[in-house]
């Protein structure tokens, strides 16, 4: 049976495209209407609405741009990115225009649903009229005939069932099994067994989604840190049906939170909590898939796979990022920017349009990532253009005598002295700067712009006095701090080794450009990102503005492939000296050695090894005790009560439960001080399950860029206080 490839709908002939598209739209509208009158078909509305919103608008934009024959992966990724950009712009336009027309609730279901369907119809008209000459092809859906496909399909199911068993029965057996299977896939690819190269893209996506789900789905409520404030802002749009653009929070200027979450919530009829826990991981798992494609196009399939395996093995991908929804969407747009940037075959005008669109979408999704990317563009551009300009400006006798100028290590391979094709150009950088300045200076009262200028001022004033100071440079503090156990110390050495592999890989790429055909734009930005890593260790208050682990995670978007290249280069250098190395177990080839190393890296990062030997476990999913920002329904119920009981009193809360209360009202809470006598009279004290069971509270203190925590007896703070609320999982004292 031959099926048309649904991921390449823009490559179909116009008649087939129109019929199928309108059928999908009619079914979607019909299911929504049935749901509104009380006939709810389980899962149908949620699935159809998600597919409709996430895929179809972008397909129409690709067709309107007459972009065809991109391939399945590129078409899927570009269509998702363009769809999200269309949704965010639609929400922004509705929020501005409808109040002027007398509709005070643009973010209500009826208005938003009609608006989105109308926008899609306009895009359909543009697509069919602009692409009327296209005769179309009939690309078939190619599913690899390998037993690896159904095997890999089980991974997300194991993650879903495993988190259910964890939450309800405190059983983590299936989650242990999931991590073992992911490690087994890493071994299988390294030893070239079971998983054929045709399955690598599918393996990358299912493994990434499984890792995200094995943490995001724990608890029936959101967990983590910033995501609680993101939930508060999304709810503050949904309840009044209007986005207040003047609320002075950095996150309030991010359409990835204040527009995209309400749109998905209203149209799919999902609570925002489940939008964060289910839908956003589906989108975020596309980032490794896109990075795999970008690396594979420049190197080969196995380097692409291990680059992404390294990227998503680092714990930040499936822990911290779960609680940073806005950065998940921004990284998706950064990945799409990379994919468009390295494509030297696309029409230059269409490529520029895609890159500018993704740049704007990144800017309105997360300010931190946008700043880092922008501040890397200028030095990367200089690295590309200065050698070229020197060759043209300096006399021939000077260039001939300077070996550095004879061979430009960042020149495109095989240009033979011709004019190189550059996709990282000055107009793009200027447009990015203008868009960022306009958005960050006007929305949310310019707080995003004020934040970065404040960080810059703090760095500048302390740069020459506190460089490499562990109290101000968070990266240096992590490197110099004493590991809690020898096993954790070994894990630190493994992390440091990956940094060494990256450095070696970059050097090997620069020295052997004819072998490692990395695009010069990608290589130039990677060199700057390596310096950003160094700055995270040396520069005061630089890494702490994001968090060192998040900063390293961001740099791995570009740097991960060079760890693989570095590993291959080291292996080949050793093999040349030691001829018998291939006889050593697991060292038969560079890929086998790399698979062993990165599987060990994964097992450390996932917390699997610590959990097995019971050595200060770190896993959010496997460790069911301990004090973590994971909250149960009784804690949520208690927090909701204290904010709705009618009296506007300050609420004292410890360092972990602080984040839960952020999701309700960020104005009333106070950190519990180390000295109980400093707690104001006539205030509330909120205790969660951990506080009650352990009779302990977490006290946090911050010195410059480093936060330290200690636990103290809760009894000191409950003396002379009345317990006014108790549900056996949380308690409120007055």
UniProtKB/TrEMBL annotation:
The chain crosses the membrane at residues 20-41, 47-65, 77-101, 107-128, 148-165, 171-190, 202-223, 274-291, 303-319, 354-374, 419-440, 523-545, 551-571, 583-604. It comes from Methanoculleus nereidis. Keywords: Membrane, Transmembrane, Transmembrane helix. This is DUF2206 domain-containing protein.
